[in-house]
Amino acid sequence: MTVSGDRGPLLEAERLSKTYGRVRALDDVSFSVRPGEVHCLLGDNGAGKSTLIKILSGATSPDAGALRIDKERMRFGSPRRAAEHGVATVYQDLAVLPLMSVWRNFFLGSEPTRGWGPFRRMDWKTMKAITAQELRRIGVKLDDVSQLVGTLSGGQRQSVAIARAVHFGAAILILDEPTAALGVREAGSVLRLVAEARDHGIGVVLVTHNVAHAMTVGDRFTVLNRGRSHGTYVAGDLSREELQDLMAGGEELNRIAEAVRTEQ
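Now predict its structure.
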């Protein structure tokens, strides 16, 4: 376990709740993430993971509960505000422009310029050099950062998004199902980058339904089921089967198994 003991949590979610109409999407959920830690949020579809991501990233606000960054209570109001406080979110459906180059996507919205007044222009040489350097630093090998993002594999796109977040100063990195659509080899590459971000002192929130991937890099695990937390566990506390059982809801799983046996 690689959690830093020198300081308190980077992020604390305290008794977060969110309701949409009659649907209780989140109900009294708490967890924290510390520097140099991968905290996995585990849950199947409908567990409340997407709602929790929206709250953490500033896309929506909770109806109840508190969110703290470095012990300071926050109410972001927008993803840009969250980013200003070091919270970067990489979504499953990556916000990249396929017909733009890797380096343009890397700096999209944060382009450095040179010159002044009417002669100001984008500093494309600097952007290319920094993009290549940052990708190399985390072990991503591309033939040319001028190639279109649309020509990259899913794992490479995830790598570019993670490298971008780290370069622009993310202290807390939220990853939404980063390995969901990837094969074994590419998933392994992305998980290696997650571990590297952790080793650089970043607090990583890995949101996933894949227990095997979570256990590969996770330091702590919070299990969500139907909007409620089923507890937080340290790596080694539970087996893979026990975590899967918590995700599915043990009693519900038993009822399904009994129904199957009855039908037979």
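The mean pLDDT is 87.
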